[in-house]
Specification:
The protein has 315 residues and is α+β, with helices and mostly antiparallel strands. It has eight helices and eleven strands. Strands 1, 2, 3, 4, 5, 6, 7, 8, 9, 10 and 11 form an eleven-stranded mixed beta sheet that branches.
């Protein structure tokens, strides 16, 4: 009996060690992955995609080149050396996400945005969410929201490299952003809830104040871009801007709705309306591209004849 028990214990010993090994595997280190040594440049290719370990994606365009500087649980840091890159940053994670482009740093929590590194400037365009844009070592920064675009001229070859370069506000969600302001993450400004903003939009529509309704819907997209209700808000904003004769703003809102829910019930209408509004705004190239994209996505779509007429007029 003693010999039998000893043999049974010997056969059980390797199994008893499994929990310790499993514990060693599940107690992951602080870093998501050790930084690559040396961090390699992404090869030039037609829109390659760099998938990061936190679930974020960087898609390269126009011969863009990146170098991965850090990738840990605390921080992901990318140096964009050239070209245009679209970043889709996974929200809700306790880490810093920083893009360095020349002397400009773009700090993100969770958003989708573009960074274009031009020879003499850096351009940042926000699709949804919020980003902070600052010059290296400076105490001033710009906070950008959905629909905002900011261009910082390079000052690397001038004697005033310690100063913020002149800001050219290209697009700003209907508002003018003429200067940078002190960085605050998050901003110490009370933000209305999405329910309050939607109620404000409804009340403004009832009293015929389209401008106030549009402003409330833009606030929804700016502050609650990840909320499912932002999809319908973007579409409603497009219809409001169209009624106000603001065709380019309407097209941008319709395209935002289409991006937020590619398979949504309103998306076919949004794509068609975006093409028509771009045509009304006089942007023939963008309207043609949007119209051809609609026909490719919906060859038997409800707006096919309307889009075909528009394309015929643009030829």
């Amino acid at each position: 009996l003693v010999a039998g028990l000893a043999g049974w214990a010997a056969t059980r010993a390797p199994q008893d060690e499994a929990p310790a090994e499993l514990a060693a595997l599940t107690s992951a280190p602080e870093e998501l992955a050790a930084p690559l040594e040396p961090p390699p440049s992404i090869p030039v290719a037609p829109a390659p995609a760099l998938a990061l370990l936190d679930g974020s994606i960087a898609t390269l365009h126009d011969g863009a080149r990146l170098e991965l500087r850090a990738q840990t649980q605390a921080e992901i840091r990318i140096e964009q050396l050239s070209g245009r890159v679209h970043y889709e940053v996974r929200p809700g994670l306790p880490r810093r996400f920083v893009v360095e482009a020349g002397t400009v740093d773009v700090t993100v929590v969770g958003t989708a945005f573009w960074v274009t590194h031009e020879p003499d400037a850096v351009r940042v365009t926000v699709e949804h969410g919020r980003v902070r844009v600052a010059r290296d070592g400076e105490t001033t920064a710009a906070m950008l929201g959905a629909g905002d675009e900011l261009r910082l001229e390079s000052s690397a070859t001038t004697a005033t490299t310690t100063e913020i370069a002149r800001v050219e506000p290209v697009r700003s969600g209907g508002r003018s952003r003429s200067k940078l302001r002190a960085p605050t993450l998050p901003e110490p400004v009370a933000t209305a809830s999405i329910d309050t903003l939607l109620q404000q939009a409804d009340e403004a529509m009832l009293r015929g104040d389209r401008a106030a309704a549009a402003e409330a819907l833009r606030a929804v997209l700016r502050d609650f871009g990840d909320d499912p209700r932002a999809y319908g808000s973007a579409f409603q904003l497009g219809k409001l801007e169209r009624a106000r004769g603001r065709h380019r703003a309407a097209a941008q809102a319709f395209l935002t709705a289409a991006r937020k829910s590619p398979l949504g019930a309103l998306t076919e209408d949004a794509r068609a309306d975006a093409a028509i509004e771009l045509s009304e705004a006089g942007d023939a190239a963008a309207a043609r591209e949007a119209g051809e994209d609609y026909l490719a996505q919906y060859p038997s779509g409800a707006h096919r004849s309307r889009i075909e007429r528009m394309l015929a007029q643009l030829r």
